[in-house]
Amino acid sequence: MTTKNFDIAIIGGGVIGLALARALQKSDASIAIFDAGREIPPASFAAAGMLSPSFELADGNAEVAEALYRFGAYSLSRWSDFAATLEDETGASIDYRTDGTLGVANSTDELEAWREQTDRVASLGGDVAMITGDEARALEPALASTIIGAMLAPKDAQVDPRRLMAALTKSLCAKQITARITTVKKDGHCYHIKASDGEAFNARTVVYAGGAVSGLVAKEIVFPVKGEATAIGLSEGIVRRVIRHRDAYLCPKAGGRMVIGASEMRGRDDLEIDASAIAHLRTNAALIVPESENAKELERWSGLRPGTADGAPILGRNADGCFLALGHYRNGILHTPAATEAMAALILGNTQTPEIAAALRAFSPDRLVTT
Ligand SMILES: Cc1cc2nc3c(=O)[nH]c(=O)nc-3n(C[C@H](O)[C@H](O)[C@H](O)COP(=O)(O)OP(=O)(O)OC[C@H]3O[C@@H](n4cnc5c(N)ncnc54)[C@H](O)[C@@H]3O)c2cc1C
């Protein structure tokens, strides 16, 4: 078997690996993307596609939470250009929508939680406001009469991740190879890469973008957080914005497909779908949008989010000099433009905007890798 040589090998063809390959192919480098295909289905295919930094201000370490919010907000600001150029290049629609997001409450506790979230996001410069239940229903008449108030994030957006993946794939001239990579060994200025079928490759630069269960990164660093979701048929226009609630969210997509998500189970690496989890999502969705109750189910699925101990991504290099674009947890679709910009800047030595430089400092692997 002959060994194939590339300048850059990207291991993982989810949204992060594909978008990075697209950015890097503007250089003269020869690029290969390795993807395990059906053996390890990408989380990107399972995502709802919410581009919602306002709703992802994590609890816990305040410094990390702020860095994560700022990175998400920066990435959201890049999404409109990213979507337009990708659609122009490929002629494919990715169903990018900028109708905003509503976080709804049907109890005073929930209302208080949204108020706190509004204050925190506003203190970081985010565009969010509290509105009454009637104001929320004026925006979205299908909302239940029990909704007593909401947090409105008018600039949060969404996209269809499956269309995004298809468009990114179409945009690539990089070589796409279906193979599960089992080892990467450094040898001077070269990396020897081995696939599970025994095939061998060499590359001068290696990027790990293998998501939650690549087998190439320690489980303490990136671990799976399983999520289940479903889609129902609900005519377009009944709900325009993404509607979020503590126990379920609804994302309207093209063609009358409404995505309802999602469960969260840390550490589970199977893709089994629990009927009771889907029933729970449907029940909660119906409490928010009663018309969804009897809508026909179109599909149900699951995926493995790539989690990290502090909920923030890993952008940088490991001890062997391999680049890491990992751990985007609940926000890989949102992060795609900014993560791509950050990794391309690192790999090609491009100038970094202040936002990207700050993210690369905050999300360095050094904070998680203790050995
Ligand atoms: C139910 C659900 C809802 C979500 N909703 C949203 C949302 O609304 N908004 C948002 O921003 N994010 C959301 N996410 C999170 C988002 O899907 C992830 O953060 C993102 O898809 C991660 O992308 P990735 O490219 O890093 O990994 P993945 O998409 O998982 O891709 C990794 C790829 O690497 C390949 N691979 C792995 N190991 C190897 C190997 N050893 N050799 C070769 N190839 C390998 C796999 O085959 C896979 O294709 C959601 C996730 C889930 C599960």
Description:
There is one protein chain. This protein is globular. The chain is α+β, with helices and mostly antiparallel strands and 371 residues long. 30% of the residues lie in helices and 28% in strands. Strand 1, helix 1 and strand 2 form a beta-alpha-beta unit. The mean pLDDT is 95. The site of flavin-adenine dinucleotide has 42 residues, from helix 1, strand 2, strand 12, strand 17 and helix 7. Pfam families: DAO. Its EC number is 1.4.3.19. Pathway: Cofactor biosynthesis; thiamine diphosphate biosynthesis. This is Glycine oxidase ThiO.
> Percent range for helical residues?
25-40%
Number of structurally distinct domains = 2
Computed over alpha carbons, the radius of gyration is 21 Å
Number of helices in the DSSP assignment: 8
Q: Quick one: CATH class of the largest domain?
A: Alpha Beta
Look at the helices and sheets and give the structural class: alpha+beta
* Beta-strand content: 25-35%
Quick tags:
8-stranded mixed sheet; FAD/NAD(P)-binding domain; binds flavin-adenine dinucleotide; single chain; FAD-dep_OxRdtase; 8 helices; 9-stranded mixed sheet; 2 domains; Glycine oxidase ThiO; 28% strand; alpha+beta; 371 residues; D-Amino Acid Oxidase, Chain A, domain 2
A few lines on this structure:
It is built from 8 helices and 19 strands. It is α+β, with helices and mostly antiparallel strands and 371 residues long. The protein folds into 2 domains: 4-46 and 163-221 and 310-367, FAD/NAD(P)-binding domain (3-Layer(bba) Sandwich); 96-155 and 223-305, D-Amino Acid Oxidase, Chain A, domain 2 (2-Layer Sandwich).
